Amino acid sequence: MSEPILRVQDIRKSFDGSGVLRGVSLEIREGEVVVIVGPSGCGKSTLLRCINGLETIDSGEIRLHNEVISGRKKDLHLVRQKIGMVFQSYDLFPHMKVMDNLLLGPVRALGRPREEVEKEALQMLDRVGLREKADVYPRTLSGGQKQRVALVRAMLMNPELLLLDEITAALDPEMVSEVLNVVIDLARGGMTMAIVTHEMRFAEAVADRILFLEDGVILEESDPETFFHSPKTERAARFLQSFTYASRRDGAEKQSKNNPQG
Amino acid sequence: MQGLGIHVLFEGINFQRLLGGLWVTLRLALITIGLSCVFGLLFALLMLSRKPAAKVFCRVWLEIVRFMPQLVLLYIVYFGFARIFGWDLDGETSAVLVFTFWGAAEMGDLIRGALTSIPRHQAESAAALGLRKSQVYRYVLIPQTLRRLTPQAINLSTRIIKTTALVKMINVAEVLKVGQQIIGQFYRQPDAAFWVYFVIFLLYFLVCWPFSVLSGYLEKRWA
Ligand SMILES: Nc1ncnc2c1ncn2[C@@H]1O[C@H](COP(=O)(O)OP(=O)(O)O)[C@@H](O)[C@H]1O
Ligand SMILES: [Mg+2]
């Protein structure tokens, strides 16, 4: 197998003396989709934020293509040009039209010619069904449309790795799938991704590997089939249990799987 | 001298004198607003700095400016500085000093508020795109700050224009003072005062109204 694109080695991070990441190691290979799940507050966002330098780490090391990227300051922007990230909150720039949102990174950070990027941007918008929205301001878009634009914005940087942090958590339920289908499309195209999500069925559909994070450590690492149908740890089983509901009719042990909200 | 008192405005060069007074008002206000923007920016940066001493300094300054009537500050500088330090400042210089002392603090607080009201995610997602720190400010934070700031800054500017009327108390011949001189000259015309003040009201309105329209327009446009 090829060298991993990303290698996280025993990283630790604490806020105000309480350990949020307590020795996390993971590797992601090219084209691989790793989904990180775990109870809220277990450190998933912190992990992704450490990877692209939004948080500093206390110890350990992060490498991108064997190059150490943790603990850097001056050329952090160069590292981030290779790692795309989309957040939970809608973070399009409200004072720019959709197209200007998309051009900002490639034109200003990478110095690519505007016309060339514009063509590419229109193609990508077309792919996510939003070509006609190029000239509108983000406030006129629905939440699902905003997140699709945010995905396009990240992809236009041609990142080597894409980090997605609960990108559908703030969406109305009917908009979740329009966004996640774009992610699945990217996965099919071979995009390397680390995804944090609470959408378990999506996780099962998209993941090559599931990491179960609890209390700042990775408790279980499995392929999706194993993780969702016969988890190795009791903690993971209990976590998955929290996404199911008991039926109110007879045969109460029969349970229906459901997607949680938020 | 009978008939409507409004004619006093057109006796001799009275109307020109009034416009001259208005120009003094405007000049004072414009200089003050300009300096308030410059020092307000420094004030905001001080307030946002991590040094506790700088923060305390700014808070004290802001409190003084807010609880002290501007007139008292004017008297302190115009009369007090001459006695205590031997600085014999003329009325306009004193006024610019005092109003800038006030305007810079208020403007600084507005700038600080506008900057800190931008969600942290804006800066983070710009940084995540691989922009340098200076580019994050230039393309993302400063444009949004200006949009939030402009209507409030315009509002403060109209308050500064109105407050300049106080300088007549330290013998600067701004528009109100000139008006009173004209009224004094025609003390036998009972309704002269009404007409002079009415015209001054119109002049202030003409100066401040465009600002208010502009601010309303920008607020709607950038909402
Ligand atoms: N900037 C911060 N300052 C202090 N505590 C933080 C900060 N960011 C996260 N935390 C804490 O770290 C823990 C993990 O947070 P997070 O990584 O956001 O969890 P998750 O994304 O898994 O829900 C939480 O207890 C949270 O309160
Ligand atoms: Mg989170």
Describe the secondary-structure layout.
The complex is a heterodimer of chains A (262) and B (223).
Chain A: E1 4-15, E2 18-29, E3 33-37, H1 44-51, E4 59-64, E5 67-68, H2 76-80, E6 83-86, H3 98-109, H4 114-127, H5 143-155, E7 161-165, H6 173-188, E8 193-196, H7 200-206, E9 209-214, E10 217-222, H8 224-229, H9 234-241, E11 244-246, E12 255-257
Parallel strand pairs in A: 3-8, 3-9, 6-7, 7-8
Antiparallel strand pairs in A: 1-2, 1-4, 4-5, 9-10, 11-12
Helix pairs in contact in A: 3-4, 3-5, 5-6
Chain B: H1 14-48, H2 52-67, H3 70-84, H4 91-116, H5 120-128, H6 133-163, H7 175-185, H8 192-221
Adenosine-5'-diphosphate is lined by residues 15, 20, 40-46 of chain A.
Describe this structure in a few short sentences.
Chain A is α/β, with parallel strands linked by helices.
Task: Provide an overview of this structure.
The complex is a heterodimer of chains A (262) and B (223). The model of chain A has no long low-confidence stretch (mean pLDDT 92). In chain A, β11 and β12 form a beta hairpin. Chain A is an alpha/beta fold. Chain A has helices at 44-51, 76-80, 98-109, 114-127, 143-155, 173-188, 200-206, 224-229, 234-241; strands at 4-15, 18-29, 33-37, 59-64, 67-68, 83-86, 161-165, 193-196, 209-214, 217-222, 244-246, 255-257. Chain B is mainly alpha-helical and 223 residues long. Chain B has one domain (6-221): MetI-like (MetI-like fold), CATH 1.10.3720.10. Chain B is built from eight helices and no strands. The termini of chain B are far apart. The model of chain B has no long low-confidence stretch (mean pLDDT 88). The chains are: A alpha/beta (262), B mainly alpha (223). The interface between A and B is medium-sized, with 26 and 20 residues.
Gap between N and C termini of chain A: 37 Å
Mean pLDDT reading of chain A: 92
Assembly type: heterodimer
| CATH 2nd-level architecture of chain A | 3-Layer(aba) Sandwich
Query: Which of globular, elongated, flat, extended, rod-shaped describes the shape of chain B?
Result: flat
* CATH class group of chain A: Alpha Beta
Kindly report the spatial arrangement of strands forming the biggest sheet of chain A: 6-7-8-3-9-10
CATH superfamily (homologous) name of chain B: MetI-like
If you consult CATH, what is the topology of chain A?
A: Rossmann fold
Note the main sheet of chain B: none
Poorly predicted regions of chain B: none
Rg of chain B (CA only): 22 Å
Overall number of strands of chain A: 12
How much of the polypeptide of chain B forms β-strand, as a percent range? under 5%
**Most extensive interface, chain pair and sizes:** A-B, 26 and 20 residues
| Arithmetic mean pLDDT of chain B | 88
First-last Cα distance of chain B: 55 Å
Q: Quick one: overall form of chain A?
A: globular
> What ligand molecules are bound, each kind once?
adenosine-5'-diphosphate, magnesium ion
Helix vs. strand class of chain B? mainly alpha
